Each structure stands twice: as C-alpha cells, then as structure tokens.
Amino acid sequence: MKRHWIKILVFGLSFFYRQTICLAEEKDYIPPALTPLPYLIRDPAVRKELKLTAEQTGRLEALCSRMDPHLFVLRDQPPNPTEPEMIEHVRAVVELMKETDDILQPPQRLRLQELGFQFEGVYAMFRPAPSAYLQLTKDQKNRMQVLHRQFLRNQEQLRTRLEESGRQNELQEQMEQLRIRFMNQFLRVLSEGQVVIWNEMLGEPFDFSQTQPLSFQAPELEGLTGWMNSKPLTFRQLSGRAVLVIFCSPEQASAEDVAAYKLWARQYNPQEVALIGILVPPLQAQKNGIEPASWVQKEGLMFPVAQDAKRLAVRAWANPVVPGLYLVDKKGRVRWWWYGPLRQNNLSGDKWVEERIEILRSE
User: Final residue of a domain: which of 210, 236, 271?
Assistant: First the structure.
C-alpha cells in the first residue's frame, strides 16, 4: 500500500493558532484547547470551498462576530490557557461553535472537518476523536510522542547550527524539509489500513495559500473618559478610515515614540488615518504621577486622546504592555499590532507601522 503525506501550508492564522511544536522543551504534545475550525470558518476562501448560500454566509458572519471578542482576547495566550478567565473564553468559543451544526449542512460540516485535519496535519491524531476513529493503540500513541520530542530536538539543533554558521537564510527551507521527514516518519507508525482512513479523513487537498491573514473586529472604544482634542469616538463613526489605536502612558512614553505619534498625526489626513490615544494609568498609584491632560498639552499631541482610568479598554483589547499599538482597517477590523517601544532592540517599529498604514490606506 502506497503511503501518502500531505504538506500543510501555514498561513496568517498560525500567528494566532499557536502549535506547541514551537516549544523547545521536550514535553508530550498536548493539542491546543481550540481546534482550527473557529478560525477557518472566518476565511472567504474556506467559505467558498464550503459552497455556502447567502443565508448561511449571513448567519455564519453573525456567529463569527459573537466569537470575535473571545478569539481576540485569546490571541496571545498559550495553546492551553490556565487562567480561569481565559478558560472561560475558550469555553465560550466551543459553545458558540455548536451553532454551526444548525447553520451548515452535513456535507459542509464534513468538508470543514477535513480542512481542520489538513490544517493541523498529523498532530490532529493527538485529539481524542481522530485517535479513536483511527483506533490508535497505546503503543502507537507513545511512538508518536517520541517522534514529536525528536522533532523538537532536531528543530532546535538545526536552528542553532544555522545561526552559528551564519546561514540563517536557509532556516525556512531546511525547517520545511525537516517537517516533511517528520510527517513521513509519523505516518509510518500507522498501519496500512489506518493510512487509508487518515487520507479519507483529509479529503481533497485544499490550498491554504489562498486564505487571508486573520483579522478581528476591534473592541468598541467604551469605558473611556476625559476625551481630549475630540468628542468621544466610536468605530462606527470612524468607518471608512484606517485607525491607529495607541495604548500609552505618560510615565512610560519614550521621546522617540511620542515623536512618531506626532509625525503620524501631521503626516496623515485624519479623514483617511485616525489616531486614537488611550492613556493607561500606572498599576500602582505613584506619588509623582503625571497629570494626563498636562502631559498631552506639554507633548503637543493634537490627535484624540482619552483616559482608560478603570482599565476597561485594556481588558477589552487584552493589551499586555504599554505602549501597545493596533492597526485597524477601514471596516473596523484589527489587522496588526506592535507591543513595546517602536525602537526597542534596534527595531524600526515606526517604519513597520507606516508600511502597514499604506496598505490600509490603499484598500
């Protein structure tokens, strides 16, 4: 019996759907708490593959809008969150996904599941349902974990070897070759009959390169007070403009970052690119804390700035650090973000932001 392997193309979704294979620790593989399905059903190419009707598309769009706040908050979490609040977000997504049983027809649900298996690749076999369907033995599962740990070691060794030899440019290609060898080794654990079943579970190959990077509906600008340079704003009012949301703090703002904010405010027409500053108070009250309005005036910030005194926006956006910057497209969807100072570690974050602003402006 001829054995097959399938090459899974990882697209923008992988930035959010973080596999534990990225970790260097030699631990057993534990599948992420969420399958890829909540992410896949959002993509236009996947929806086209499912042959959705207009009515189904509308219902699925409404469902994804309800899942957005949960998935957005989970974007930086480990594959299996341990914090109670994050576990609740995972549970909410799982509960909402049950509605797809009513939205999709059986053939569509089957095809979506096939795409999920293709996206996860051989690692889908670590999930209980596929494992049971394949009737994997305990010995097979143990051998798969051994291969997983060996794969992690080989990845780390390859990365170290190429870095030490100054051949980092070869890393992506050689990692891909390593991944292919790993998948072939993994499939050799299966019996011939299991290989047949696995290929049936994958269905017809799908080209993931036609999918789009993920985006999320931006949380509304709620809970903000003390607006300066503007009346309170909403994303509905800002529809049709690219928006730069900047979480910052007078106590932590670097001169370079503030200079970049002021440059962007001058450089872009506010009717095309809107800047919104959100001032985050320090975690602990400081005796010599800086008064926000005085700081805005002193720095000469002319774009809309509001205060997040109760940290409601910080929580809604799950913003982990200050400064934190988000790029929102004309439809109100968060497309990219940058954490920390723009010039940290000799990076050119300001140029990175400007390049993406131009992408959003041109859309």
Answer: 210
pTM: 0.85
69 shares a domain with 36: yes
* 235 domain-assigned: yes
Provide the pLDDT for residue 113.
98
Would you say 67 and 103 are in contact if contact means Cβ atoms under 8 Å apart? Answer: no
Sign for the CA dihedral angle at 306, 309, 314, 320 comes to positive
Total Cβ atoms within 10 A of residue 164: 9
Distances from the Cα of 270 to the Cα of 118, 241, 304, 336, angstroms? 43, 8, 10, 19
Number of domains in the chain: 2
Among 210, 237, 272, identify where a domain stops. 210
Sign of the CA dihedral with 92 first, then 25, 23, and 124 last:
negative
Domain limits at 126?
Answer: 12-210
DSSP code string of 264-308: HHHHS-TTTEEEEEEEPPPSS--TTPPPHHHHHHHHT--S-EEE-
* 235 CB-side CA count, 13 A: 18
We report the CATH number of the domain holding residue 277 as: 3.40.30.10
Domain-embedded: residue 5: no
Confidence of residue 253 (pLDDT cuts 50, 70, 90): confident
Helix (H, G, I), strand (E, B) or coil at 40: helix
